[in-house]
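Q: Given only this backbone (448 positions), what sequence would you predict?
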């Protein structure tokens, strides 16, 4: 790219940018940046943008094919994602990728039940099927903890098959949580106010018993036995952590956020240790929102006491982790107007002045990415704090500055950033008339 002598930040960014044109070689320099790193964290600036999912999937395919990555870990619940894992590994009764994704039934289902994920799951199953008989297949795993009651069912199903007496003890312990009709938030509210006895000890004791009996349950040979035990153990660990998370929800945002992200980082560590025992140096791609995967220490989050997965992975694995963020300036997005509400195809307002997104828009480049690890004028200029936009499963454009922006130092937050200037909403598998119609213009009913 040559020596940069320009001082105008827009010119500096143009000089440093790698264009994303759709060509196979667009991300060759990104592959060079990744090198032999074990962890590549691929973010998203919203939970409902087609291009974020699409580009993330294409980069992941290259990591699997070219660099031997053997696990895709995502911001999704463990049991729902493990059903997909069984499918892509060829050990499932599901006959299609759409069937394998059926577990993602709760809000926001469109995060995983969408056309891009279906295509990626199909690709991954076909890729695994094409490998030699003894080759390591790539798995698909969830890191999140919202599945407390589904995870209880999974632990009981496992124990019913392998140790009926232990299953009885587990049912007795978990009955404490069953009093709330599988309503996690009601349990958390009651326990946080001492309206109900906490089930913490019961959840901890169940995990400990399962772990004490590891050797006994693994007496039979074969990786499948070990995988199924690990699946059950992780569900028990999830129940313990979810119980604490739901109690913490009513104590404050920082406490519950930190518990959730620590759980996801802990799940990653256990997953890597499990897969490493099968004889390989495991490499993992993570898919989650920028707010989870960009280093929290470089944002307002860190200043308020919040940590996240990106920070924890960097602290543990250092240069073995590459953090990649995404951004967009305008377009449409699939999001809801309230928690539990149906998905809508909403217009994304042009980014606010003073934001990274507006700065990238000013370059006039429709799609590009920047290497933020290099010590260049662009990297230094992007270390200055600016606004950054984050759209989750809810998008409220009317209160956008308060709801969706925070300050960040981009070059400290990520190792690379991919900017896609105009993007479109992710297409859910279950499309509604509301989604198809899209959001009414702000001038409605006046057609100005």
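A: Predicted residues:
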């Amino acid at each position: 790219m040559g020596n940069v002598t320009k001082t105008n930040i827009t010119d500096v960014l143009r000089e440093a940018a790698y264009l994303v044109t759709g060509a196979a070689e667009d991300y060759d320099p990104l592959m060079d940046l990744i090198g032999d790193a074990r962890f590549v964290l691929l973010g998203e600036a919203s939970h409902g943008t087609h291009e974020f999912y699409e580009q993330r999937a294409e980069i992941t395919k290259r990591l699997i094919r070219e660099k031997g990555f053997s696990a895709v870990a995502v911001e999704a619940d463990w049991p729902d994602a493990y059903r997909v894992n069984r499918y892509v590994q060829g050990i499932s009764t599901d006959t299609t990728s759409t069937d394998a994704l059926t577990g993602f039934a709760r809000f926001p289902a469109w995060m995983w039940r969408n056309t891009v994920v279906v295509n990626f799951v199909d690709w991954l199953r076909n890729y695994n099927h094409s490998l030699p008989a003894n080759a390591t297949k790539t798995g698909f795993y969830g890191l999140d903890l919202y599945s407390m009651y589904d995870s209880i069912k999974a632990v009981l199903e496992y124990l019913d098959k392998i140790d009926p007496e232990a299953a009885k003890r587990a049912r007795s312990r978990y009955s404490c949580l069953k009093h709330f009709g599988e309503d996690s938030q009601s349990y958390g509210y009651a326990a946080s106010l001492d309206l109900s006895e906490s089930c913490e000890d019961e959840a901890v004791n169940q995990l400990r018993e399962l772990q004490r009996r590891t050797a006994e349950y693994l007496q039979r040979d074969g990786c499948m036995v070990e995988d199924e035990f690990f699946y059950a153990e992780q569900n028990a660990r999830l129940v313990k952590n979810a119980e604490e998370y739901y109690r913490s929800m009513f104590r404050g945002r920082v406490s519950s956020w930190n518990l959730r992200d620590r759980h996801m980082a802990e799940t990653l560590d256990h997953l890597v240790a499990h897969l490493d025992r099968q004889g390989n140096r495991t490499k993992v791609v993570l898919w989650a929102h920028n707010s989870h995967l960009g280093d929290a220490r470089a944002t307002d989050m860190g200043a308020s006491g919040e940590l996240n997965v990106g920070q924890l992975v960097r602290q543990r694995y250092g240069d073995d982790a590459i953090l990649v963020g995404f951004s967009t300036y305008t377009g449409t997005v699939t999001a809801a107007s309230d928690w539990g509400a149906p998905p809508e195809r909403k217009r994304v307002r042009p980014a606010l002045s003073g934001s990274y997104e507006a700065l990238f828009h000013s370059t006039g480049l429709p799609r590009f990415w920047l290497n933020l690890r290099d010590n260049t004028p662009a990297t230094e200029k992007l270390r200055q704090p600016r606004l950054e936009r984050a759209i989750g499963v809810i998008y409220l454009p009317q209160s956008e500055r308060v709801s969706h922006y925070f300050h960040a130092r981009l070059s400290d937050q990520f190792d690379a950033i991919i900017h896609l200037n105009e993007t479109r909403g992710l297409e859910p598998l279950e499309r509604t008339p509301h989604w198809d119609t899209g959001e009414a213009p702000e001038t409605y009913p006046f057609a100005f």
